[in-house]
Amino acid sequence: MKPPSILFATSEMAPWVKTGGLGDVAAALPPALRRAGHDIRVLLPCYPVLRQAFPKAKVIAELPALAPALPPARLLAAEADGLPPQLPLLLLDCPPLYDRPGNPYVGADGHDWPDNGIRFGLLSRVAALLGQDTSPLISQRISQHGWRPDVVHLNDWQTALAPAWLHYEGGAASVVTIHNIAFQGCFDEPLRAGLGLPEAAWSFDGVEYHGLLSFLKAGLQLATRLSTASPSYAREIQDERFGYGLAPLLRHRSEHLRGILNGIDPVVWNPATDPALTVPYAPYAANQLAAKRANKRALQQEMGLDLASDRPLFGVVSRLTEQKGLDLLLALGDALPELPAQLVLLGSGDPELQAGFLALAKKLPGQVAVRLGFDETLAHRIEAGADCFLMPSRFEPCGLNQMYSLRYGTPPLVHATGGLADTVVDVNEATLADKTANGFVMTECGTDALWHAMQRAAAAWHDKRLWQRIQQNGMRCNFSWSHAAAEYSRMYRDALAAR
Ligand code: ADP
């Protein structure tokens, strides 16, 4: 049987728009699904950066105002170069909603755009529309374009409202993937009518959630199948401690929920060919770990750290939020010289954490270096130059950086949660014997546990042969997208059969 055709709807996609893991997933999973034989197209808002990247995108549909709150829009078709085979993109062009500088979700003041319900309501509406048979609203041109997906795949709250239309009006099967359940997209009730959702949708088993319209709850309630970014996270979010209020609903739907571990892009994240590793950085492979020392030196130099070779250099690349547990690291910051160890941190987010880390760097010059902002090149260089990568996350749906770290011979130190628990194997006698030991795992998430794990990592780093074994075990791990794509394929077929 022919693999089902898929519309993959997303609010971000690397390299153009990326605020976190979803951007990377949207860049890598659709091409992997295409290689697995799926006819797949990616729908995303036409942000200014995409308009610039695809000046020749063709208009394939003029969409009238689809509901009272939704402005008219156009659908453009473009092809993403890079990874063969070419990947068709559908760009939702609506300048009043998407032609804004900077971040797709927040304005320059750091607050959510006030019309996010409309911006992502339109994206969800159009994702559903593309999965509907005979919508009278679709212009002739799109029917000439003649493509309807068998399955509409939605990602996170920004597109998770689409299953509501598919449920109440009919259409393709749908899948919602949770990349982070902490973000749910909740808005005041009048938006329901504004987006053109039927009154019947306003119920406990519809889109209503504690008196609000919740995009994510709607998707989790009404999509044919659900997934999330790792098997452990799929279990955790059914528990009150991790479910952000949605645990009961997920338990109710547990038969339809699966955890599929993300892969990583082996071309973009390859220490042997990484274009970010220009002189004095140097590319390297698992059998050339000496070159990693040159990268450490280069990173120390670039970040203004002392060129110390007698202590490990811990690295962090992260959003600075409560989720990532970096407040624990900050609390321990003053004690770093006791280990002794150096720290390099690249991140942005919570103003208090930003200020705290800047103050720490000022207090410990030469030992702690902090760069605020989003910097792809430096992220690669930290993976290559640090000795050990820190991710003490309180929860982590999948996490990509620990997988990049493994690939870069930079053993990760993590809290055993979500995808971190599914990818990092703690160093102990048994795991060293069976060659799976690849990092340091804290079973608790607190300052004591983090300090203890950092001490263990520092001690292991001083044992050069042990360290190399841990590095090489990690570099052998295979986190290919083809494995994930095969699991998504099975879920699509399941969803289609259940329709
Ligand atoms: P999340 O999606 O929760 O932010 P992930 O580990 O799944 O966390 O993915 C984060 C991605 O974003 C990684 O590719 C990481 O390198 C990147 N990233 C996060 N912060 C920065 C930053 N300040 N500069 C560059 N890349 C960053």
Summary?
The model has no long low-confidence stretch (mean pLDDT 94).
Derived structural class? alpha/beta
Q: Strand order, biggest sheet?
A: 3-4-5-2-1-6-7-11-12
What's the Cα radius of gyration? 23 Å
Task: Classify the beta-strand content into a percent band.
Answer: 15-25%
Query: What's the number of helices?
Result: 20
How far apart the termini lie comes to: 17 Å
Unreliable runs, pLDDT <50, ≥5 residues? none
How would a crystallographer describe the biggest sheet? 9 strands, mixed
Number of strands: 18
Chain-averaged pLDDT:
94
Shape descriptor reads: globular
Share of helix, binned: 25-40%
List of distinct ligands in this structure: adenosine-5'-diphosphate
Identify the notable features of this structure and list them briefly:
globular; 6-stranded parallel sheet; 18 strands; binds adenosine-5'-diphosphate; single chain; 499 residues; alpha/beta
Structure overview:
With 499 residues, the protein is α/β, with parallel strands linked by helices. Helices cover 37% and strands 18% of the residues. It is built from 20 helices and 18 strands. A nine-stranded mixed beta sheet has the order 3-4-5-2-1-6-7-11-12, sandwiched between helices. The protein has a six-stranded parallel beta sheet with strand order 15-14-13-16-17-18, sandwiched between helices. It has a three-stranded antiparallel beta sheet with strand order 8-10-9. Helix 12 links the parallel strand 13 and strand 14. The radius of gyration is 23 Å and the shape is globular. The model has no long low-confidence stretch (mean pLDDT 94). Adenosine-5'-diphosphate binds at residues 20-21, 24, 317-319, 346-348, 374-376, 379, 398-401.
